[in-house]
Amino acid sequence: MKLLKTMLVAGAALVFSAAANAQQHDQTSPLQSGELQQNPALPDTLLNTLQQMAQAWRDDNYDIAFIQILPTQVNSYQYRHVFANQRHYAQLSTLDGGQQEIVQRDNVISYYSNSYQPFSIKGAYILDNIPGVVYADYQQLQHHYDFIDAGKARIADRIAQVIRLLPKDDFRYQYVLWLDEQTHLLLRSDMLDRNSELLEQFRVIAVQQDTALQQETQKLTTLLDQLNLPPLINVQGDEVAAETTWRLAWLPPGFKSVKHERYQTEIGALESVMFSDGLFSFSLYINENIEENLGEHYWQQAGNTIYSETLNNREITLIGQIPLATAKRIVKDVIFNANGQ
User: Fold this and answer.
1) pLDDT tens digits for 264-282?
2) For the whole model, what pTM was predicted?
3) How would residue 263 be classed by pLDDT, with cut points 50, 70 and 90?
4) For residues 46-54, average pLDDT
5) Which of 72, 94, 216, 241 could bridge to 260 as Cys pair (CB 3.0-4.6 Å)?
6) Could you tell me the CA-to-CA distances from 189 to 48, 142, 200, 306 in Å, in that order?
7) How far, CA to CA in Å, does 153 sit from each of 163, 181, 282?
């Protein structure tokens, strides 16, 4: 029961932290089916193309309808983004099932749903259901990923350049990206494991940009500027864990600590540190108040991994988008100080 509570608390905390920092019918990678052909290309050319995509997603005005394909479900969404007067406005709405809406007004992200009380958090952009590749720093990523030209394809009746992001090691997943040649927006992304099996797919089915959206742009900015946003949830944390009682003996190359937080929960004090390589991220949660050995547990869905192990009455839980083998190695290499309590 304590393990379950720790996972639930950690899972909820990860959702807030990630946002604050930021199917069956198509389970075969196109790289396996032979749809794409890999061609040599100058790394600087691909880097420039990827940077154009990130800038367009961040600074352009557009309206897209997309689907998210997971191993057991397909969900559809509408995402609108406006950058006006040096402020970001965005709206992510579900198109299936229960109604849920996430809106952004500059650096505040607000969540609305019939299943919970509305709330707001601080954040630079909406991450939920949107692949992190659109916010990545590709200048940094090129040190740990190879950018490979995979030709061109047609997505949503538009011509797209296809680029594969192949990690230089086996400690993280890979991506295939389809970038609109005209708007530079991301039209599709496939997250793949080391065997090129599909873990998660983002696919745009309709897109509008700029001039066609002038009236809608004005409506969205006016609405969000006048909206009374729900209460702000402020999770306290510091970036440097100077007083922490533990350290990592091993970390995958390129991953760095980006956030450190402490929580008081019903199971006691819970400490967490988030790590990221600029594309994928994971968080470690340390509970030092375990009276019994709960052993080893893990859970995986799509690209998300939860791995937990109890060592010397301390429970270590990792949650993030990394392979299970990588998660196990990180957790097993956590070292506590000799005087850590």
Assistant:
1) 766 667 888 999 999 999 9
2) 0.83
3) confident
4) 96
5) 241
6) 18, 18, 8, 23
7) 11, 10, 32
The token pair that represents 135 in the structure block: 């916010």
Q: How many CB atoms lie within 10 A of CB 259?
A: 21
Angle 258-18-93 from CA coordinates, rounded to 5°: 155
Query: How many percent of the chain have pLDDT more than 90?
Result: 62
- The CATH architecture assigned to 42-226 reads Clam (2.50)
Rounded Cα distance, 55 and 77, in Å: 22
Encode burial over 278-314: b for 16+ CB neighbours within 10 A, e otherwise.
bbbbbbbbbbbebeeebeeeeeeebbbbbbbbbeeeb
The per-residue pLDDT for range 114-173, each reduced to its tens digit, is: 989 999 999 999 989 999 999 999 999 999 999 999 999 999 999 999 999 999 999 999
Structure tokens at 17: 């932290």
Residue 294 contacts residue 287 (beta carbons within 8 Å): no
At 224, the amino acid letter reads: L
Q: What CATH number should be reported for the domain whose range is 238-336?
A: 3.30.200.100
Residue type, 52: Q
- Asked whether the beta carbons of 201 and 189 are under 8 A apart, the reply is yes
Delimit the domains of the chain by residue range: 42-226, 238-336
* Residues belonging to the chain: 341
CA distances from 186 to 127, 156, 201, 254, 268 (A): 14, 11, 12, 24, 42
> What are the distances in angstroms from CA 29 to CA 40, 152, 180, 253?
20, 16, 20, 26
